[in-house]
Amino acid sequence: MTPVRRALEFLFTRVLRSRLGVALVIAVLVFGVIGAARLVSGPGDPGTGVAVRPTQPISTVDPEAGEDGMLSSPPAAVAPRIRPGEPTPEQVAARFTTAWLTGPGSTGDAWQAKLRPLSTPALVEKMTGADPETVPARRTTGPPTLRPRTESFVEASIPLDSGTLRLDLVAPDGPWLVDAVDWERS
Question: What is the pTM of this model?
Answer without folding.
Answer: 0.59
